[in-house]
Amino acid sequence: MKINRRSFLKSALTLGGAAVAFPTIIPSSVLGRNGKVAPSNRVCMAFIGTGNQGTGDMSNFLHDSRVQVVAVCDVNRESDGYWDNTVRGREPARRMVDGFYSSRKDSGNYKGCAVYADFRPMISRPDIDAVEVATPDHWHALLAVECMKAGKAVYNQKPLSLTVWEGRQMADAAKKYGAVFQCGSQQRSERNFRLACEFVLNGGIGKLHTVKCGLPGGWADYGKTAQFKTPTEVPDGLNYDFWLGPAPVAPYCKGRVGVNFRWIRDYSGGQITDWGGHHPDIAQWGMGTQYTGPVEVLNAKGSCPKDELYNTFTEYYCEYMYDNGVRMIISDKLEGGVTFEGTDGTVWVNRGGLRTTDKAGNKIDLYELEEDEFKVKLYQSDNHYRNFIDCIYTGNECIAPAEVAHRSITLSHLGNIAMTLGASKLKWDPVKEQFIGNDDANKMLKRQYREPWVLKV
């Protein structure tokens, strides 16, 4: 029986009426000959947002032989102003894709990547199986939901959403449409973070009582000068009104777009949300609270220097109390990474770092532990991008699904709300996802969309 790519990716094989599960890792020998994946069985993938993270992610997917990148979409044709003032946009992305495949063809000539300035005709293509959303944060929810409604698997860059309400819509959409969904919280696919969380969940540091998340502060210096903040004419090749999308109308200036959008509340939430999909996500994983949240936000304090354009918090401190008595702290004044503190010891983990001590101060090497002895085992992924493609083939849930990502970034959203209101204490219902007895805070859980954009699951 010949199985084409469409039926292979979207249909379950059955024997006697019972579903047969595919293995988590699909060997290339199953999909093609000589270690190569048959073209008819590759995942056809498209990218929306080919500026900063999107370009790097696309490179990773290009190197997965099970993937064929067929389209790119960006409202910007080509310009500088991205990380390290690099030149990016839809045309550089197209050149990257065509150049990559050309280097692997005997003829050295490949021009198969389609280019779009509008995402809508792209996601309507029936041959596209998966889409990455790597736009500024204020576009994440609308794009991801529309992709899921169109039957696509979605890799959505972190932070998942701009608001708590948006995150709930995204998680509900993933469930409603049965979408394979991966948030770009890639620390979950790094061994040191998983080991730290497993050690805590297995009682390695006794009873957990405090978790500290140290995130960066300030506004990262990406060349923000007065000249970048002065309104100017929109450059040729940029559809600025489309870039604004559901956000309020605002005059164009170079410092508003490119890499600096994250310091403007209309489009992002500052460092606390930029990193909120990372360390607080790991904290919830190790606490065993990844499908719920805190019941109180306490002692929230933040500062934001007066600036003509940037208005996110550059310094912040927020405490969160959970109904099991564990306290979480998110602040730019803590040691970078995640620190789990228990009655019998401490675990600190960061990118490239893992440090464990018992209550007497003796060091413990988690890498030497027999992981098989852990009774509580966490989802293991060694590559965040490959995990997404694996799950498209298997139908399994990804390591960073929408519901989990929503619960993680909610912490940062709650912190921003508490700091904005100057509230010393806010009660939170993690089931209803509403503040208790504070209408002003509840109004900040959602933003109004600018017409004609509407988010509807």
Describe the structure concisely:
The protein is built from 15 helices and 17 strands. It is α/β, with parallel strands linked by helices.
Describe this structure in words.
The protein has 457 residues and is an alpha/beta fold. The chain is built from 15 helices and 17 strands. It has helices spanning 5-10, 28-31, 53-62, 90-102, 119-123, 137-149, 164-177, 191-201, 226-229, 240-244, 271-274, 279-287, 384-394, 402-421, 439-443, and strands spanning 14-15, 18-19, 43-48, 67-73, 114-116, 130-133, 153-156, 181-183, 208-214, 296-303, 315-321, 327-331, 337-342, 345-350, 353-358, 425-429, 434-435. The strands form three sheets. The chain has a nine-stranded mixed sheet with strand order 15-14-13-9-12-11-10-16-17. The protein has a six-stranded parallel sheet with strand order 5-4-3-6-7-8, with helices on both faces. A two-stranded antiparallel sheet has the order 1-2. Strand 4 (67-73), helix 4 (90-102) and strand 5 form a beta-alpha-beta unit. The two termini are 37 Å apart.
